[in-house]
Write a structure and sequence with these properties.
The chain is built from eight helices and no strands. Helix 7 packs antiparallel against helix 8. The longest helix has 44 residues, at 2-45. The protein has a single domain, classed as Tetratricopeptide repeat domain (Serine Threonine Protein Phosphatase 5, Tetratricopeptide repeat), CATH 1.25.40.10. With 209 residues, the chain is mostly helical. 77% of the residues lie in helices and 0% in strands. It is globular and about 65 Å long. The N and C termini lie far apart (69 Å).
């Protein structure tokens, strides 16, 4: 009986240590989102939550990128880095890649595109930009792999968004599925065409599909 109580206490102690370790790890890796959530929750519950700061910063940077031709101003980078300091997984990572791409720093641009696609593979431009950079760096095989990865992704996504055959499905949902499916098809075709052009410059490569 005493032995059972001993092992029971050991199990509880192990569980307590595991729980505390999980809490510590959560705090280390997610303290920024948790801190933002804690600050934003009262406003959200009161119906007064404004657009999150990181998105507002990224929006401002994107507007500046659209307004300026050629190398963008340093303010764009400052806005995006501030946005990423709040949410490292946001679309600002892609926009920072656009900043570096237009500023003539393809290595940093490629790194940003790769990081963004690892989190959000739903945007076609990073695939195209990254493939172009890799090809220009004399790495056509890697460029081909990027394009094929994007093609495969959009092909799967297009299948997922096919309209429901169920006649009882809401009409709005069917319309949404058609619209999204068309956008995914356009992205798929853009990547397929770019892959065909890439392979045309490499006669020995595997044909585009």
């Amino acid at each position: 009986m005493a032995a059972n109580r001993f092992w029971h206490r050991i199990d509880l102690a192990t569980l307590a240590v595991a729980v505390w370790a999980a809490v510590v790890l959560l705090g280390i890796f997610w303290w920024r989102p948790l801190a933002w959530s804690a600050r934003a929750l009262p406003g959200y519950l009161a119906g007064e939550l404004d657009r999150p700061e990181e998105l507002a910063l990224a929006d401002e940077a994107e507007e500046l990128l659209a307004e300026v031709e050629g190398p963008p101003p340093a303010r764009v980078r400052a806005l995006l880095e501030r946005s990423l300091s709040i949410d490292p997984l946001s679309r600002a990572r892609f926009l920072l890649g656009e900043y570096h791409f237009r500023a003539g720093d393809p290595a940093r641009a490629a790194a940003c595109y790769q990081e963004f696609l690892a989190v959000d593979p739903n945007e076609v431009t990073p695939y195209l930009r990254l493939a172009a950079i890799l090809e220009a760096q004399g790495r056509p095989t890697e460029a081909e792999a990027v394009l094929r990865r994007g093609i495969a992704w959009f092909a799967r996504a297009r299948e997922d968004w096919r309209p429901w055959p169920d006649p009882s499905a809401p009409a709005a949902a069917k319309v949404k599925a058609v619209q999204v499916g068309r956008g995914l098809a356009v992205s798929h075709d853009l990547l397929t065409n770019e892959l065909a052009r890439l392979l045309a410059r490499r006669p020995s490569a595997t044909p585009a599909r």
